[in-house]
């Protein structure tokens, strides 16, 4: 009976709207003021709710912060799954360059954009207070994307589609690919808070692919 009542309450449109308003308010305030600089009173005011309603839905500020990070991780994991599916088949020597350009553009434009940069800066900024969350984010977002790339590169190297060298394994190749296509623009955005425009992000990704594919003597 209690579970049924709980499920009914959680599916109530008013409750759903209230929770969404709280999460949006908390995310905005955390990014603007940091975790320590944000209070539950601030969140209630920004969401347009009473403190009682706020606490009926979320136990405390930490619960909200963890929920926001979990949402970011879920989006990153979906991106990694979609990327794995796209890279699973259909890559040949004839279309390798085209496919890598597509992958690079997806990674760059998916990562170097204002909402993602703001949330990454938030996680990094609060990593001393929540080191386990920062580690979880790294493991389930950046590391997972690199892992997906490495799986594909390993197959392509074995098939002779992607050039392999004795000193370069698939994981290192994936990490280098990722940095070439997104590293400079991502570093700049993370450190300054200024996100490059889409044309610049795409241009960096294109140049990164060409550098990755060029013979060692021509780099």
Structure characterization notes:
The structure is a single chain. With 219 residues, the protein is mainly alpha-helical. It has two domains: 1-58, Arc Repressor Mutant, subunit A (Orthogonal Bundle), CATH 1.10.10.60; 66-218, Tetracycline Repressor, domain 2. 76% of the residues lie in helices and 0% in strands. The chain is elongated, with a radius of gyration of 21 Å.
Give the helix/strand layout.
Elements: H1 2-11, H2 13-33, H3 40-47, H4 51-57, H5 61-87, H6 96-111, H7 114-125, H8 131-140, H9 142-158, H10 170-192, H11 198-213
Helix pairs in contact: 2-3, 2-5, 5-8, 5-9, 6-10, 6-11, 7-10, 8-9, 9-10, 10-11
CATH architecture of the largest domain: Orthogonal Bundle
What letter string, H or E per element, gives the SSE order?
HHHHHHHHHHH
The protein's oligomeric status is single chain
The radius of gyration computed from the alpha-carbon positions, rounded to a whole number of angstroms, is 21 Å
CATH superfamily of the largest domain: Tetracycline Repressor, domain 2
CATH class of the largest domain, named: Mainly Alpha
The total count of helices amounts to 11
Structural class: mainly alpha
Average pLDDT for all residues: 89
Integer tally of domains: 2
- As for the CATH topology of the largest domain, it is Tetracycline Repressor, domain 2
Unreliable residue runs: none
The coarse overall form would be elongated
Largest sheet: none
Strand percent estimate: under 5%
Q: Termini, distance in Å?
A: 68 Å
- Count of DSSP strands: 0
């Amino acid at each position: 009976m209690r579970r049924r009542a709980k499920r009914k309450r959680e599916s109530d449109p008013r409750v759903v709207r209230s929770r969404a308003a709280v999460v949006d308010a908390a995310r905005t305030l955390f990014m603007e003021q940091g975790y320590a600089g944000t209070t539950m009173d601030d969140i209630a005011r920004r969401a347009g709710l009473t403190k009682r309603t706020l606490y009926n839905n979320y136990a405390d500020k930490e619960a909200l912060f963890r929920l926001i990070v979990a949402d970011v991780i879920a989006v990153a994991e979906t991106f990694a799954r979609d990327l794995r599916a796209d890279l699973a088949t259909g890559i040949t020597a004839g279309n390798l360059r085209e496919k890598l350009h597509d992958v690079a553009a997806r990674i760059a434009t998916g990562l170097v954009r204002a909402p993602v940069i703001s949330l990454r800066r938030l996680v990094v900024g609060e990593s001393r207070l929540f080191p386990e969350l920062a580690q979880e984010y790294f493991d389930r977002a950046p590391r997972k994307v690199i892992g997906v790339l490495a799986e594909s590169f390993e197959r392509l190297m074995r098939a002779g589609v992607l050039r392999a060298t004795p000193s370069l394994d698939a994981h290192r190749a994936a990490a280098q690919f990722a940095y070439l296509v997104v590293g400079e623009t991502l570093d700049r955005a993370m450190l300054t808070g200024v996100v490059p425009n889409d044309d610049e992000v795409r241009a960096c990704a294109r140049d990164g692919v060409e550098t990755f594919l060029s013979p060692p003597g021509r780099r």
